[in-house]
Every structure is written in C-alpha cells, then in structure tokens.
Design a protein that fits this description.
The complex is a heterodimer of chains A (479) and B (343). Chain A has 479 residues and is of the alpha+beta class. In chain A, 32% of the residues lie in helices and 22% in strands. Chain A has 2 domains: 302 residues, no CATH class; 61 residues, Dna Ligase, domain 1. Chain A has 14 helices and 23 strands. The radius of gyration of chain A is 23 Å and the shape is globular. Chain B has 2 domains: 154 residues, no CATH class; 157 residues. The chains are: A alpha+beta (479), B mainly alpha (343). Chains A and B meet through helix 9, strand 8, strand 10, strand 19 and strand 22 of A and helix 1, helix 5, helix 6 and helix 17 of B.
Chain lengths: 479, 343
C-alpha cells in the first residue's frame, strides 16, 4: 500500500532524498506491503473501537456535555534505528543531568549566576522560581524525576530539543497503549523486525519512587495524586497507578497531621511517604500557594519541608520549563558537565536582549513567537501563517513585556507517511516526546510518543487541534 | 482502602442495579397495558403514577410533565437527563463512579460498563427504543446481568468488592419492595385481601415478572396468583435472589466481610441494623404484615434500608465526597497538565 507514497521537499522519515526506503524501514515496508486495503481498514477500525471501549479517551476542554474523544491513532509506526536511539538517549540523559544540577544550584549557591553564565535578572523574574525553596534540600538532590523533552527534526534531519517539560509531563500511557494495540494487530511484525519493548516503564517509575522515599521507611506507601476525573490525563493517572499497584488519590483523600501525610481509608488514617503528583505547584497546597485551590492538601508543603514525605517531581522545577531558561540549557551543559550539548536547541532569540529584540521585531512575519511560560500551543504566534493584525498584537505584547517572549525560526518538522481518508498515505509532520526517569540511575523509555499533525500541511500536533499519535519503534539493530 | 474509593464502588454498583430495576419496572408495565381495555387518560394516569411514585421521584416528574401519560413516564424514567435516576442517568453515574476508581475494577468489567454507557448515549439507543421498548429493556437488563457475571468471575474479593455488594443489595432490596408496593391501591388498608379481580391478578403477575420471579414463583405456588403468596415470595423467600430477605441477608454478610465481625455480633450501627432487619425478615409471617397493612410495612422497610445505608457511610466513609467543589473544581482539574507542545 505504501508504494504510492511520495515525499516532497521536507525531510521524510521513511524515504531518503532519492525516494528510496531508508534501511531501518525496509523490513517494515516489506511486511506492510502484503497487507490488503480491506485488512488495513479492519485493523484500523478495531483499534479505534478498542480505544473507545476501554475509555482511552481525553475530555474535550470546556465541553459541558462531557464529550470524550479518542486520541487519533495512526497505524504506520515511526521507526528509529538502534544507533540513532543510542545517540538520542545519551543526549537526553546529558540534558536532564544538567537540568537537575542547574536546579540544585539555582536553589542553593547560584554559582551559575555568580559566574555570569545566566544573568540574575532572568532567574529572579522567572514565573516558576520558588523563592520559598531556596536552601531546601530535596531528597537525593533530584528535582526532575520525570521529564518529557520534546524533540523535532528539521530540514536536514538533525534532531533538536523544542522544549523541556519538567513539571508534570503527560502522554506516556499512550505510548504503552499504542504499543499494546499494535501488538494485537500486527503480532508477527514485532518478532520479525526486532522492536525494543516499552512496557517496563511503570516498573522503572515505581523503582524511582521507592528510591526517593524518606530515609528510615522500609516499606514506603506510594500514591499518585491526581487532580481528578475531569482532567484530560485522568485515564493516564489511573492507568499508571494500576500498573504500579499503588493507590490513586485526590487532594481530598489526604490530610496532614504533625507534618505527616495520611490518607483517609475505611480503616482510618494511614501514612503516605511518597507522592507522584500530577498537580502543578500552584495547586498543591492552598496554605502556601494558590489559596483558591480545591485540588491540593493543606499542610502538604509543611510535611515536605519536614522531610516526612517526598514529591516527584519536586517543587520548583517549573523554572526549567521557562522558555528563557531553555535558551541557556546548552550553556548549562557546558558549565556543569564541561561537555558539548549532544542534541542542540532550536535557534532562539530572547526578546529582552536588545539586539535579539530588534531582530525579532523586524522579522515577525518569519518567526515563531512563544510566551515564556505557556505550553500546549497557547500564547504563540506562527509568523508565516498569521494575519497582519495578529502580528501587530504580538509586537505590542513583546514591547510591553519582553522578558516573557522568545522567538525561533519556523522549523519545518520532518514528515512521516500517515494514513489519510481514502486508503492512501501522505506525509504529515511529526515530533517526538521521550520520557526520561531520573532515580538511582537515569533511564529513557525506548522511543516515546510520536505525535502527528493530521491536517495537511499543519505543524500543530496537539490532540486538541487535530493531532494524533503513532507507535514509536526503536529497533534492536540498524536495519 | 480509600474511603472515597469505597464510596465510588458502592455507588457504582447501586446505580447499575438501579438502571436494571427501572428497566424491569417500566418494561413489565408497558406489557401489562397491552392486556387492559378501555384506556383513557384517567386510567392511564392511574396506571403510571404509582410507578413514578415507586421510584421516589414524583416531585421531579411533576415539575417536568403535566400528565402521567405512558410517553411522559417512560421518557422520564428511561432517557430524561433531568431525572437523576433515569436509566440513562443511572448508567452515566455508574460509569462516572467506575471511572474514578478505574484501577479497582477489572478490564472486562470496565469495558462492558463503558460499552453500555456509550450505547445509551448513542442515536442507536433511540433507534432500538423505537423498534420496540422491550428490546431496549432487554439490552439494559442483559448488560446489568452481564456486569454481575463479569464481577463474579473476574473481581478480587477484597474490601472494595464487599462495598459494591452492599450497594447492590441495598438497592435491590429497596427496588423489590417498591415494585411490590405498586399495586397497593387495590388492597384493603389493613388485613388480607379475600379475592381479587382478573385485572388485579394481571397486575400481580406483572409484579412477579418485573422481578424475574414468574418461573420461580410458579414452581412453588403454581399458576395461582394471589397477593398473599406474591408478597410472601418476594419478601420472605430464602432462596430467591431478588427477595428482600435474600438481599438483606447478602447485605448483612457483605458488611461482616468488611469488618470481619461474625454474625450474631456487631461493631457498628450498620451491622446492628442490618442484623436486626435480617432477623425480622426471618421471623415474620405474611399475615402479620397484612394486618399492619402492606403499604405501611414497605414504607417502614425502606426507611430501615436508608438507615443502614447512612450508618455504613458514617462507619466507613466519614466525609461527603460529592461534587461540592462544583464548576471551579472541575475547571481546576481540567487545567492541570503539561500537554505536549508543538513547533
């Protein structure tokens, strides 16, 4: 079926410049070739139905009807050869190591500021910098336990980091469920192609959570703290809790007494030692952060400070997500590790640097502008596709608050053959979110979540805006 | 086990049982109408109003509908989203509770509950309904029975299981008593009815059918349908799984599985009341009940069930986990996440 597929000017994951199938896709293509159109349609249909039945859905934000949709899934997998993955793995481990050292430093001695690598102004003005936690020692010195750094490939196929997600990255349940669905649909392919499994992720996660338990607790009670059933990642929360065999709790299930955290059970209060929280800092504890939070646990921060409960991720990691800090990550890698960054950043301009600002304002129609602390495609200008009026709005915003904006050239993401209506395949832009766990050692789940912009020509891979996902296959070999 | 989780499991199975019983009640009454002659508005209202009353939602019904026509009542009991106890609402709430404790139920159970939820909310449900309500009710009953079976075959008999059994049998006992109460207007206020008309006999057969009790009843009493025997069967039969005695016995045993306290003793108010109620059902006769008046007796019975439910809540759940946060809480829940971004 893929015989009809052609590439065009973008970097194509499957076909090289001359239109030949790249070596790591060959085995897949020859097996896929033998599949009939009807058989493919059947498999697609049954996977969609299975997702719907299992409730592997996300809630459409702001929809009062409570409509649930499945995250569209494309059956053509993205394939990554072993050598390429080894490189990515090293690059990601390097990056999270530097980020954790940065967070430790920035909440203690702030050497990186004193040595003039990052101007103090940027740290002090960062929205998610938690002054309250300066000089607070987090368990095992790990700040970011779970990180999802988004990777993209540009015109020449070079991998670049688009952003780091060091607070509560979501999406890993799709990695696991997509793989299950593919294994059910194409059981023979996995054996014959040699794809690295992903299903030990929950065990790795659990091991890490056990590792960071407060000292002197032999059998720590670990819980996953969810904002609740209305969160679009709620399916993922229950899924991970079930896989790890831990309790999933809401804020109202927990109480703090004597600087210790307990959960309300049918047999009374029981102590909790480690919390994998999927609630952001601001909402964790209404007595410390946002007072109107109905999701948090009053007194939780006090218990955390007393060392009686550990949190993953730690409080205050949001500063690493600030897009201005992102600009400095390559310098952090050099400063803390004395290494060259393996995976580069996307070239970035800071609006609060005079020369950069001039460049940004002069080239707005060619640039992508992003607010420093927004994610999920909010607060963003795509210059080449924007109306003049929209560009002018951003011009004013940038001038009014330059600290809050960065700009990057528009990157044409790599493309991947993707099924479209009418049983044919066209190139669609993709990115990759790997999941990194940082505990006693740092591990990266092989592959990650490949997201695909299903609308023709679109660069937006978000589920809320017509994005879907693919299974990501990391091969044992290079072919 | 988390109190909130216990609470969800309790309500999940209560709502499934509720949906099934409402399907039973409406189904059998629709069929009953086929046997009646000379139907006018008044007679229809006489027929349908007790059924709305039996679900305990009379007030809500009158706010939405002027007259108790067949169409108004079935719409109210089956589809109406404004009725929190309609079949569609009940399945929605069962599924919502299950979703909140998704990690506590087996995959097969969740998939089936999710399937029936998607079904009742789909246009397909209305289509089936138009083809014939009986087929629709058949599907609801089958889904609930299927869920029971999946539960028995796949779920861990842990604390959560016993909480779900408490919910299930409380609801079933309550609904059986309400179904039995549907024909009370044809009975003398006190004392045993002597003979009954043919129409009345049809009404009492309908009661048996809505409890899936027709065959079981016949095997004991033959085809002679009399309020005395029907009442005795649905209240006191020891072996029929929908009789109130059976349900209260299961309820009592589920409560004791939770606490580990043997029967004959109790460690909380819920166990005390459940034990007492079971003993009362074991040591009562149908004559005594008719002497007091069946309707009055059933009213008292329902109040006792409510008391057991709230005593169990006080013993294990402590605090209300209802949606007290409302809109703001939902908004905050929705906000929390780091969605993958894009170029």
């Amino acid at each position: 079926m893929l015989r009809e597929y052609h590439r065009d000017k973008f970097f194509d994951e499957m076909l090289d410049e001359s239109g030949k199938i790249r070596p790591h896709y060959r085995r897949f293509c020859s097996l896929f070739e033998s599949l009939g159109t009807d058989e493919f349609a059947d498999k697609r249909h049954s996977i969609d139905l299975a997702f719907l039945r299992q409730g592997i859905t996300f809630n459409v934000y702001g929809d009062s009807q409570g409509t649930e949709r499945i995250f569209p899934f494309d059956l053509v997998p993205r394939v990554i050869p072993a050598k390429e993955w080894e490189f990515l793995e090293r690059g990601l481990v390097q990056r999270i190591t530097a980020l954790n050292l940065f967070l430790r430093d920035v909440y203690h001695e702030q050497k990186i500021v004193k040595d003039g690598v990052i101007p103090a102004f940027y740290i002090l003005s960062a929205k998610h910098f938690r002054r309250e936690f300066v000089n607070f020692k987090v368990p095992k010195d790990i700040y970011i336990h779970i990180c999802g750094s988004d990777l993209i490939r540009g015109d020449d196929g070079t991998y670049m980091v688009l952003e780091d997600n060091a607070r509560c990255p979501s999406g890993v349940s799709y990695v696991l469920e997509n793989r299950r669905a593919m294994k059910r649909s194409f059981p023979d392919m996995f054996e014959r192609i040699g794809v690295r499994p992903v299903d030990h992720y929950p065990q790795e996660l659990l091991k890490m959570l056990q590792y960071i338990a407060p000292p002197g607790v032999p059998n720590p009670t670990i819980v996953l703290l969810t904002p609740g059933a209305y969160n679009s990642a709620y399916f993922e929360h229950t899924y991970l809790a079930r896989q790890m065999g831990i309790e999933i709790v809401e804020g109202r299930d927990l109480v703090v007494a004597d600087a210790r955290v307990f959960m309300r059970t049918t047999k009374g209060l029981q102590p909790v030692h480690v919390i994998y929280r999927r609630i952001e800092d601001d909402f964790l504890d209404p007595t410390v952060f946002r007072r109107d939070s109905m999701l948090g646990v009053p007194g939780l921060v006090h218990a955390y400070r007393a060392g009686h409960v550990s949190l993953a991720n730690s409080i205050g990691t949001g500063i690493a997500d600030d897009k201005v800090m992102y600009y400095f990550v390559p310098r952090m890698i050099k400063y803390y590790l004395d290494q060259e960054p393996l995976i580069p950043n996307v070239p970035t301009y800071l609006a609060s640097e005079e020369s950069d600002k001039k460049h940004i304002l002069e080239n707005l129609p060619n640039l992508v502008v992003k607010a420093a602390n927004e994610s999920g495609g909010y607060g963003m200008l795509m210059g080449p596709q924007a109306a003049t009026q929209e560009i002018e709005i951003f011009r004013q915003r940038i001038q009014a608050d330059p600290r809050n904006y960065i700009a990057q050239p528009m990157i044409s993401l790599s493309r991947h053959p993707t099924h479209v209506e009418g049983a044919c395949f066209e190139g669609r832009h993709i990115d990759l979110r790997p999941y990194i766990i940082c505990g006693e050692k740092t591990t990266v789940a092989p592959g990650g979540l490949t997201r695909v912009a299903l609308r023709p020509g679109s660069l937006v891979v978000n589920s809320s805006q017509g994005g879907g996902s693919k299974d990501t296959w990391v091969l044992y070999g290079d072919e | 086990m988390l109190s909130r989780v216990a609470n969800c499991l309790y309500w999940m199975s209560r709502y499934i049982e509720r949906a099934e019983n409402i399907a039973r009640i409406v189904d059998v009454n629709l069929q009953l109408l086929l046997d009646l002659r000379n139907l006018n508005d008044e007679r229809l209202a006489e027929h349908w109003m007790p059924i709305v009353q039996s679900t305990g939602d009379e007030k809500a019904f009158l706010e939405l509908h002027a007259k108790a026509t067949g169409q108004a009542v079935t719409e109210f009991l089956v589809f109406q989203p404004e009725n929190p106890n309609s079949i569609v609402s009940s399945i929605g709430q069962a599924r919502e509770n299950a979703r909140m404790v998704r990690d506590q139920v087996s995959l097969e159970f969740w998939e089936e509950l999710n399937r029936v939820y998607l079904f009742v909310r789909s246009p397909e449900a209305r289509k089936v309904w138009r083809r014939g309500p009986s087929e629709f009710f058949q599907q609801i009953k089958a889904a609930s029975l299927h869920l029971s079976g999946i539960g028995y075959a796949t779920m861990l008999r842990n604390e959560g299981w016993w909480f779900s059994q408490v919910g299930k049998f409380l609801e079933r006992a309550d609904k059986t008593s309400r179904i039995l109460d549907v024909r009370y207007q044809g009975l003398p206020e006190r004392g045993m009815p002597v003979s009954i008309s043919q129409t009345e006999a049809l009404g009492w057969s309908a009661i048996l059918r809505s409890c899936s009790a027709w065959d079981a009843y016949k095997s004991i009493h033959g085809a002679d349908v009399h309020p005395r025997y029907v009442t005795e069967f649905l209240l006191f039969n020891e072996d029929f799984p929908r009789s109130t005695r059976f349900c209260v016995s299961e309820l009592n045993s589920a409560l004791r599985h939770i606490s580990g306290v043997p029967s004959g003793r109790f460690c909380n108010e819920a166990e005390k009341l459940a034990g007492r109620l079971e003993a009362a059902l074991q040591f009562s006769t149908v004559e005594e009940i008719f002497d007091q008046g069946l309707h009055w007796y059933l009213d008292q019975f329902q109040l006792k069930l409510n008391a057991i439910g709230s005593a169990a809540f006080d013993a294990y759940i402590f605090q209300d986990f209802g949606p007290e946060g409302g809109e703001l809480m939902i908004q905050q829940e929705e906000q929390q996440q780091q969605q993958p971004a894009h170029a």
